[in-house]
Amino acid sequence: MEFKSGAAICEQVVYAATKSIISGQPRPGDEFPSVRALSKQLKINPNTAHKVVARLADAGLLAIRPGSVAIVAKHSSATKAETTNLLEQQFEELVVERH
Predict the structure, then answer these.
(1) Fewer CB atoms < 10 Å away: N or C end of the chain?
(2) In whole angstroms, what is the distance from residue 30 CA to residue 45 CA?
(3) For the whole model, what pTM was predicted?
């Protein structure tokens, strides 16, 4: 993942992960990378990786299981309009932060 200057790294990762999850990769039930793995994989601060996982869980895209394992949540209850709205909202946040 390439980060764009001017926008918060956390927001960029949340946006990319949301887009990926909504598109079906990873699939519901798949394990999401741990905070440590996400931090190492993207070369970001562990605190930032933790914020990403927390934001995705708050949005209902991840379910946190005992032992702090994050699983991609089933999002069949969300309509296409709701998921599109979520992506648009996150994109607007990125644009606002850049200016």
Answers:
(1) C
(2) 24
(3) 0.75
Cα–Cα distance measured from residue 72 to residue 79, given in angstroms and rounded to the nearest whole number: 17
- Of residues 64, 71, 78, the one with CA closest to residue 22: 78
pLDDT digit string, tens, across residues 42-76:
999 999 999 999 999 998 899 998 887 899 998 65
What is the reported pLDDT for 66?
Answer: 82
Contacts 24+ apart (CB under 8 A), 26-31: 26/72, 27/72, 28/72, 28/73, 28/74, 28/75, 28/76, 29/71, 29/72, 29/74, 30/71, 30/72, 31/69, 31/70, 31/71, 31/72
**Residues in the chain, overall count:** 99
Compute the chain's Rg from CA coordinates.
Answer: 13
